[in-house]
């Protein structure tokens, strides 16, 4: 679990230097058969880039996450129509709960909007969509999930970057080898990937809602959120919502749910 506090952290050189070379040297695979050999190769390269013995030992203790691979291959909900997606994700429940939270936590959301320029609607929509307001944060070993996805050929380069971030977080005591989260390595109330923790963590525990919402607002601000501007498709801040998640139906759902929570039509 995320129990230690952390501040905004810049990515150290090992996260960006040689990532492409590492992905080429440690050959990716599409089954569990080559995972252990790949881990050994990756561990050697990680040591050469300055990753600590503690973090490398955690890496070598990971197991192939079959459930993560199955989830990565089966994201069918992103191919639904917007109406189908909203129904599947329980949008009406998110909106109803969102209205209540906007009132009961008015001081928190006012503080976040003053600090980051982001209104309550999109933050609450993301929170509800990602984890049903913290109730569904996942129970997958984060390091095993990210290591498996770095090994898997489908998105090896992207998750190699995430793996180096995870190892850095373990080295600094922000995560542990036993940290658990969702299938792709997302952590906390709003599901931050490890690299986003490094880039946009504002201090605190991502399993704590106020801290997670602050980090989420910081992510949106860092990606160009303009205070007071709209966030529906075609408006200034919709591109920022697109930075949060690559699936177009998800982006439109967040925009619509956020608008309904913020009181729009």
TrEMBL record:
PANTHER family named in the record: LYTIC MUREIN TRANSGLYCOSYLASE, MEMBRANE-BOUND LYTIC MUREIN TRANSGLYCOSYLASE B
Origin superkingdom: Bacteria
Pfam family, one: SLT_2
Sorted UniProt keywords: Signal
Sequence ranges assigned to domain Transglycosylase SLT in this UniProt record: 35-231
Keyword Signal: yes
Protein name, UniProt field: Lytic murein transglycosylase
InterPro entries according to UniProt: Lysozyme-like_dom_sf, MltB-like, SLT_2
Signal peptide positions on this chain: 1-25
The keyword GTP-binding is annotated on this UniProt entry: no
């Amino acid at each position: 679990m995320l129990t230690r506090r952390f501040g905004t952290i810049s990515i150290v050189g090992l996260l960006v230097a040689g990532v492409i070379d590492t992905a080429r040297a440690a050959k990716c695979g599409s089954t569990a058969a080559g995972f252990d050999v790949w881990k050994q190769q990756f561990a050697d390269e990680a040591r050469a880039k300055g990753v600590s013995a503690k973090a490398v030992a955690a890496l070598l203790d990971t197991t192939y996450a079959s459930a993560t691979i199955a989830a990565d291959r089966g994201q069918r909900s992103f191919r639904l129509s917007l109406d189908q997606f909203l129904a599947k994700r329980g949008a009406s429940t998110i909106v109803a709960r969102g209205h209540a939270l906007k009132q009961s936590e008015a001081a928190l959301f006012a503080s976040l909007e003053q600090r980051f320029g982001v209104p309550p609607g999109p933050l609450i929509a993301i929170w509800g969509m990602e984890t049903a307001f913290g109730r569904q944060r996942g129970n997958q070993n984060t390091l095993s999930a990210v290591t498996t996805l770095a090994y898997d050929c489908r998105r090896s380069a992207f998750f190699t970057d995430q793996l180096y971030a995870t190892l850095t977080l373990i080295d600094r005591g922000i995560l542990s080898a036993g940290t658990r989260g969702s299938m792709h390595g997302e952590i906390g109330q709003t599901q931050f990937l490890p690299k986003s923790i490094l880039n946009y963590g504002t201090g605190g525990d991502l399993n704590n809602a106020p801290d997670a919402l602050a980090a989420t607002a910081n992510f949106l601000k860092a990606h160009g959120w303009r205070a007071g501007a709209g966030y529906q498709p075609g408006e200034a801040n919709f591109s920022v919502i697109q930075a949060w998640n690559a699936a177009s139906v998800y982006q439109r759902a967040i925009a619509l749910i956020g608008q309904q929570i913020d009181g729009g039509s």
